[in-house]
Amino acid sequence: MNEEQFRQELRERGYGEPEILEAGPGPLKELHTHDQSQLVLVLSGEFIMINESGFTTYGPGDWYENFAGTLHTEQFGPKGCKVLLAKK
Length: 88
Fold this sequence. Notes:
The chain has 88 residues and is mainly β. 12% of the residues lie in helices and 50% in strands.
């Protein structure tokens, strides 16, 4: 998915304007939840999402939706990552 398609998906799903987030490589974060759902598009690097279902590695052009209240953690690839993240 490219950024234009992602922004269209945000509008269709009722998400707000996305922000760019960058993170360097790092250790696994603690398990946590969010009060808002998040829709994320990976722009560069790797983003690893870990939840009760297991783990999934996302790369450039991949996107995922993390629903409010979902227990999860994330880890960033060896070169970090850059994502577009929107909330609702």
